């Protein structure tokens, strides 16, 4: 089994082979399809309402940036896309997810909030983004990068479709590092969240997957290093709520090669900044 797929056997019973589940539209897609009808309730209930504050932190991070084209990856039922649309009132927001059921609930929510002319949701894979290079001014990923099957491929695709000077904002769960929150967190996530999530969602694997995916995912400086390796600059992270979640930011460099008739010194590259 490859490193990218090492979590599969831990989350699902032995009789459910990886090949079989992938034939059923993919492991994660099926899991989120099954819990879509309770997803919003579980988010708010199991986070004690902090999920609203965490998404608000993403919107605050946008600042006064003029983002005409926004992509929200792993949009789920559209909560972050809705907040972003309200912040960037003149923007066109595209939300994508691999779960058709989640998107259907999201579309109904967007219609109720009368934002259907500003937000468009569609089914797409973050590792195969169906968009041209340098299209989006802003890309957000709320609680989704840890579900990328191949993290480097997903980040490379984000880098490709982001405009030079464009901003990437990632909101992701993380593990607190300080006592006593660290121990309370581990107890809550391992025993309470997985048990309650299993009962309410009627899916005994979904929140077990959730716990393990958070535990195994790169945290804080490790993730910013990966962002830098994939071409992003100005990469930073900010722990929220004692480190239960972390906000990551990065930008695509504004650099282009200059064509000149004068020969350049060997092993040198002449570049100039382009102001958007």
What do these coordinates show?
With 276 residues, the chain is of the alpha/beta class. The chain contains 11 helices and 9 strands. The protein has a 7-stranded mixed sheet with strand order 3-2-1-4-5-7-6, sandwiched between helices. The N and C termini lie far apart (45 Å).
Largest sheet: 7 strands, mixed
Helix and strand composition category: alpha/beta
Query: What do the pLDDT scores average to?
Result: 81
Q: Which of globular, elongated, flat, extended, rod-shaped describes the shape? A: globular
- How much is the radius of gyration in Å? 20 Å
The overall number of domains is: 1
What is the level 1 CATH name?
Alpha Beta
Number of strands: 9
Q: Kindly estimate the percentage of residues that lie in beta strands according to DSSP.
A: 15-25%
**What do we call the CATH homologous superfamily?**
Vaccinia Virus protein VP39
Order of helices and strands: HHHHHEHEHEEHEHHHEEEE
- Give the name of the CATH architecture: 3-Layer(aba) Sandwich
Percentage of helical residues?
Answer: 40-55%
Count of helical regions: 11
Question: What distinguishing features does this structure have?
Answer:
two-stranded antiparallel sheet, alpha/beta, globular, seven-stranded mixed sheet, 276 residues, Rossmann fold
Topology:
Elements: H1 8-11, H2 18-23, H3 27-35, H4 39-46, H5 50-62, E1 69-73, H6 79-87, E2 92-97, H7 100-112, E3 119-123, E4 136-142, H8 151-161, E5 162-173, H9 181-201, H10 206-216, H11 221-229, E6 233-240, E7 245-251, E8 255-257, E9 271-273
Parallel strand pairs: 1-2, 1-4, 2-3, 4-5
Antiparallel strand pairs: 5-7, 6-7, 8-9
């Amino acid at each position: 089994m490859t490193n990218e797929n090492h979590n599969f056997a831990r989350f699902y019973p032995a009789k459910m082979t990886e090949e079989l589940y992938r034939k059923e539209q993919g492991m994660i897609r099926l899991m989120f399809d099954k819990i879509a009808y309770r997803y919003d309730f579980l988010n708010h209930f199991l986070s004690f309402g902090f999920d609203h504050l965490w998404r608000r932190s993403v919107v605050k991070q946008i600042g006064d940036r003029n983002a005409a084209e926004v992509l929200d990856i792993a949009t789920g039922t559209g909560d972050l896309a809705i907040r972003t649309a309200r912040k960037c009132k003149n923007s066109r927001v595209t939300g994508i997810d691999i779960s058709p059921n989640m998107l259907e609930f999201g579309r109904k929510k967007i219609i109720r909030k009368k934002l259907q002319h500003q937000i468009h949701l569609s089914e797409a894979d973050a590792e195969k983004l169906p968009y041209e290079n340098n299209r989006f001014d802003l890309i957000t990923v709320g609680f989704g990068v840890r579900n990328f099957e191949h993290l480097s491929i997903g980040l490379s695709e984000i880098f490709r479709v982001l405009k030079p000077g464009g901003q990437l904002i990632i909101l992701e769960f993380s593990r607190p590092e300080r006592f006593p929150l660290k121990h309370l967190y581990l107890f809550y996530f391992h025993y309470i969240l997985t048990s309650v999530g299993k009962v309410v969602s009627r899916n005994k694997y979904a929140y077990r997957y959730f716990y393990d995916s958070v535990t195994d995912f790169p945290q804080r400086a490790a993730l910013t290093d990966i962002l830098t390796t994939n071409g992003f600059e100005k990469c930073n992270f900010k722990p929220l709520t004692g480190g239960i979640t972390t906000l990551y930011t990065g930008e695509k460099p504004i650099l282009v090669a200059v064509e000149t008739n004068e020969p350049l010194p060997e092993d040198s590259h002449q570049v100039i900044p382009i102001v958007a």
